[in-house]
Amino acid sequence: MMKKREKLVLIRAGPVYSFDKSTSSCISTSPLLPDPYESERVYVDASLISNAGEGLFTKIAAEAGTVLSFYNGIRITHQEVDSRDWSLNRNTISLDDETVIDVPEPYSHVTKYCASLGHKANHSFTPNAVYDSFVHPRFGLIKCVRTIQAVEKDEELTVAYGYDHSSTGQNVPEAPEWYLAELRAFQASLKK
């Protein structure tokens, strides 16, 4: 008597993720497909920092050294970034000596891009996180947001942007004006 062969049935239980490295013109083939790891750890809400717009907040308490978020974007050159107005560089971060990751308009809005949320972390001179290199299974080499101290649930994640705020010799600072104003306020608070 022959045994009946059992059938294996695959049921798709959720979205399918595949390698999706950005280019200079494509941020993602699925810009509204959130990262599942990140979705369990962070959310975007109104920042607690004055005039900062949106910020990145924790869904969980986490220890120092914990990766909570990712920073993907289009890949452009430092030369492109340096040759354009600061207003276009709101969501740029150096990946390496040649490449900058950028989350340009309209992708800076979570209604247009939520595949990674690390670009929503705001600046602080007393941060609780850092941007670090990360090899992501979907995006390849990108940046991540890693805590540098323990954080509580619903705490806003902040990083030090690290702009060069010294003069370039042409009397043009290598930082946007809002950053220079924050730097002056921070330095004044240290003198008190």
From TrEMBL:
Spell out the SUPFAM superfamilies in the cross-references.
SET domain
Q: What is the protein's given name?
A: SET domain-containing protein
Check the record and name the CDD domains matching this protein: SET_SETD7
Spell out the molecular function terms from Gene Ontology.
chromatin binding
What are its GO biological-process terms?
Answer: heterochromatin organization
Q: What does the entry list under GO cellular component?
A: chromosome; nucleus
For the SET domain, which residue ranges apply? 40-162
Its source organism is Micrurus spixii
